[in-house]
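Here is one chain, start to finish.
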Amino acid sequence: MSGALTVSAFGQEKNTLASQKALKQAYAKKFLIGCADDLRANSEAYQASIKKHYDIVTPENCMKPERIHPTEHKYTFVTADAMVDWCQKNGLKVWGHTLAWHGQTPPWFFQEKNTATGGTASAATPPATSNPPATDTGMPRRNPAGSIAEPLASKEVVLERLKKHIMTVAGRYKGRITGWDVFNESIADGGDGTTENLRTFSWYKAVGPEIITLAFKWAHEADPKAQLYYNDYNIEQGAVENKGKHASSMLLLKRLIKEGAPITGVGIQGHWHLNTNLADVEKAIENYASMGLRVSITELDVTATGSNSGAMGVNQGDRKIPAENYEKQAEVYKKLFEIFNRHADVIDRVTFWGLSDTRSWRRGQDALLFDGELNSKPAFNAVIDASRTK
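Its structure:
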């Protein structure tokens, strides 16, 4: 190797791991900096990057219901156990994701006839645990509403299944996990903000709105010291005018608090793009804090092309991304972190959803701070610069 400098695709000197300032150090006195990954097959370079830049790791897929509890009588803990062990050995915290969700949840939770075993649902049958090899593809999927076969199990059976799931999973990692996304993405898209606008299938069809409160109570019972969050995408949208999905989220959170749900905070996922309304982001943080809730940015990425909301199947945009898009992306990241700095007193953590542009569910949209070789992008420098603002 010669000592010549190399230039990145973004027109700047390549900034490799050794020369990068650690993200977690830049924000050490403000909030935790996190990443999302299952830590299944990382190279030494990725392991070094995780240890250098982040305080906390969220499992991208391996703790979701379909991965950790694929059938009624089987749990698969291999990947999740290994992830938690690795984090503890390397001084990183773990955030659990997610105990209940309509997506990536196997239909057996809701069906009267358990097709995996051929038996009829019973609320009294204890689960067994096993650890077959993990088959995680790294890509999230959401179960379509129509994938749950009728007839549904009784409300009592569905409640018992979710309670056993939460008590088993949260209980297994008691004391080893900082907190949990207890319920994920309950609010449907497209509402006017006058109601909670909850989804109309899976948990919400089988039980009803009270399922969310009950899940929080069971999670607290399983691990009384864990922080417990409600997590969703687009819930900042409409905050300035108190309409749309944000208004619905406020109604939902007020109900949970009134019903005694032991809720610590709310996770704004933060799947954003170059034209995201930053005023809504800041106002949403203020509104949630006014309710006495903590706030986290839980799944942050800012696409350099196309739209990005958190929903599946969004516009991917032009795959030939011009250089000016990366500069605009850096501006958006800087403004976002300036907002986070202003509200550091209520923000617990900011977690990036992935490790690099090629280790991201938005692959092709170059949404993160590092390229596929872990060279930093203009957005990385912007986030570091923002750490110096108040």
